[in-house]
Amino acid sequence: MKTVLHKSGTRGHASHGWLDSYHTFSFANYHNPERVHFGALRVLNDDTVSGGMGFGTHPHENMEIVSIPLAGALEHKDSMGNLGVINKGDIQVMSAGTGVYHSEYNKNKDEEVKFLQIWVFPNKRGVEPRYDQMTLKEEDRHNTLQEVISPGFDTGLWLHQEAWFYLGKLDKGNSQTYRLKKDTNGVYVFVLEGEITAGDQILGKRDGYGIWETDEFEINVSENTEVLLMEVPMEI
Hints:
It holds the Pfam family Pirin. The protein is mostly beta strands.
């Protein structure tokens, strides 16, 4: 088993007044040559946007983009004609493909929106851009790992990549065994709240931990926890 640990306090940080952002991997003005990506996982940004503010219209291409709200409401508008709002409990995916313009704003003027912005390298370039979102049921991840993204379109949403995402809301004392889908994949564990031990590593709030070259690993919960697991190919 190989591992890499990214403690929450070692992340890159950018404060723009209206935006407070923590970068697990190199992004914008934060560059760390040892933290550019984890396999196909390229960006993991932990963003807080002030009321009524947001990201103006900007382009993307050849990237799979996932947004997961943690609090508040995030409004999305794009050049494909999509206009929608995602709240805590929702998840959004966008394939930028041949090119797309979009904007993201805090829907509310009187409260912050907190969300994860995740980019994954695609396994196909030049695809037709697309957008999708869905509302998740919290009870479906209570003391289990809820599959929210998969390449087989069986459960949740999908990406142009052999990637599986899971969310878990796990009570203290709970344990889970995660079995990797492919021996060429790795899993990036990101703790949203609480404390767990993944393998032999204790992880707290906003800690990240990459695991690969193993068939499975254990998660043991020492405090009530919310956790995100992202299984991605290690070779891109």
